[in-house]
Automatic annotation (TrEMBL):
InterPro entries, alphabetized: AAA_dom, P-loop_NTPase, ParA/MinD_ATPase
Phosphoprotein recorded as keyword: no
Protein name (Swiss-Prot/TrEMBL): AAA domain-containing protein
Any GO BP: negative regulation of cell division
Taxonomy of the source species: Bacteria, Bacillati, Actinomycetota, Actinomycetes, Micrococcales
Presence of keyword Transcription: no
Span of domain AAA: 197-349
GO molecular function: ATP binding; ATP hydrolysis activity
Coiled-coil residues: none
Family matches, as Pfam families: AAA_31 (PF13614)
Species: Arthrobacter sp. J3.40
GO CC terms of this entry: cytoplasmic side of plasma membrane; cytosol
């Protein structure tokens, strides 16, 4: 049964702030009530129980504005515990400004200013609540009618934030804008292209985060159903093999070259490549390592890069190529010849940023094709250490006029050393890499 909204009155003004550390503040007519719980679901239930109690005391529905990591929600709560989502017909200018400053508000949830900001949203949302409007039917020519089958796709209910929690209790609230954005990024990262696509990850300066960028992008694409190989196209021992799982063998790209004829034969089977690559058990992609012999002397030629690319193109739909730092070498330049999309990683350190710029400028001058790759590039700025979010954003802004997209990845200690496992990253870091993978997919 729908909640009778005509019974709602301007008072009380109720707002709730839910923090990522399982603390929250419920404000009722200016009076703050702090809450803390073992986990976020318990916290939301405690806040909702208090709101239902307020409605029961008044014996009428109340409005509540809730803010969490997924954004701002406008809810109507009845005395018997029914909850409905409400969308204002317009968002007041002041409320829009507040919503744009949600990160700063969330960081100050124990202050009077934060509570006042959310209360502003509550009051203005209430004044802009939808009202019933009577309409009239106008006759039109049947020729103007669009197909009745052209209805919008059904949107699955929210699974995140307070809306997701309420849906787990039996409601069916729509997802927030943040959740819809994440779903769109997942859709892009899950896309299957007609033919193999090659992504080159390049920066002519070492320590610019090339290998973590390859591993994390490969993990996003692999976890979302892609057929993905991360190829260490390095003239010497590359670090991709050090930062990822090793299979039950030690084979490398040189072994693939030696066995290329058999792997490319019409009788070869899809599982044959498993003898030469190293599968990442949780992140669902494979690694083709560079030669790791300390006394090795073989240098991969441009022609051998062609052979390797033919082999991996036969067995995988998506190829991510890690690279060395010598942009004049044969294997580096042939990698560019095979690339469909360029990713230029950098930290926010000045020399890495300058090297990223020089890499793009060099490709712009090399040929018409490589200039197109540079203009369509995705730059990934990884924070070197905590507390450098502002510097990273400033770095990103330097590149935005010159490339297709720039994504900032926050600092994460799980990326500093050792094997890279996507599931060990913080949620904010995983979200940033998903955003980066979606940006890459848009260019494919």
């Amino acid at each position: 049964m729908a909640i009778e909204k005509s019974l709602i009155q301007p008072e009380p003004v109720i707002s709730a702030i839910i923090n990522g550390d399982n603390t929250g503040v419920l404000k009722i007519n200016g009076e703050e009530h702090p809450y803390e719980a073992p986990d976020v679901n318990d916290l939301r239930q405690a806040l909702m129980k208090r709101v239902i109690g307020e409605a029961a005391t008044l014996n009428r529905p109340v409005r509540v504005t809730s803010m969490d990591d997924s954004g701002v929600s406008y809810l109507v709560v009845s005395p018997t515990g029914e909850v409905e989502e409400e969308q204002p017909t317009t968002v007041p200018e002041d409320a829009s400004t507040i919503m744009e400053r949600i990160p700063s508000i969330r960081a100050a949830t124990t202050t009077v200013e934060a509570a006042k900001a959310v209360t502003t949203i509550s009051r203005e949302a209430a004044s802009a609540a939808p009202s019933a409007v009577a309409g009239t039917t106008t006759r039109r020519s049947i020729r103007e009618a669009e197909s009745f089958l052209a209805a919008p796709s059904t949107v699955e209910p929210a699974t995140q934030g307070i809306r997701g929690m309420l849906n787990s209790l039996g409601l069916s609230l729509a997802p927030s804008e943040d959740e819809l954005s994440e779903r769109e990024d997942i859709r892009l990262a899950s896309k299957h292209f007609a033919g193999t696509r090659t992504i080159a990850v390049v920066n002519q300066k070492g320590g610019s985060n090339k290998t973590p960028t390859v591993a994390d992008l490969a993990a996003v694409f692999g976890r979302n159903g892609g057929s993905v190989v991360a190829w260490d196209n390095n003239p010497t021992t590359g670090t991709l093999g050090w930062r990822t799982e090793q299979g039950d063998h030690s084979r490398s790209a040189l072994d693939v070259i030696a066995n290329a004829e058999a792997l490319l034969s019409p009788t070869a089977q899809s599982a044959d490549i498993n003898a030469f690559v190293h599968h990442q058990s949780t992140d669902k992609y494979d690694v083709l390592r560079s030669d790791s012999d300390v006394d090795g002397t073989h240098e991969v030629t441009a022609e051998e890069v062609d052979i390797l690319h033919r082999v991996v193109s036969k067995y995988y739909r998506l190829i991510l190529m890690d690279s060395g730092n010598n942009h004049r070498s044969a294997e580096w330049n042939r990698m560019i010849d095979h690339a469909d999309q360029l990713v230029v990683p950098t930290t926010n350190e000045e020399d890495r940023v300058e090297a990223a710029l020089l890499t793009l400028q060099g490709l712009d001058l090399k040929s018409e094709r490589s200039a197109g790759l540079a203009a369509n590039a995705v730059v990934v700025v990884s924070e070197r250490q905590e507390g450098e979010a502002r510097l990273s954003q400033e770095t990103a802004e330097k590149f935005r006029p010159y490339v297709r997209d720039v994504v900032v990845v926050p600092f994460d200690p799980a990326l500093k050393s050792g094997q890279i496992r996507f599931g060990a990253l913080k949620r904010s870091t995983r979200r940033a890499w998903l955003r980066a993978a979606a940006a890459v997919a848009r260019g494919l």
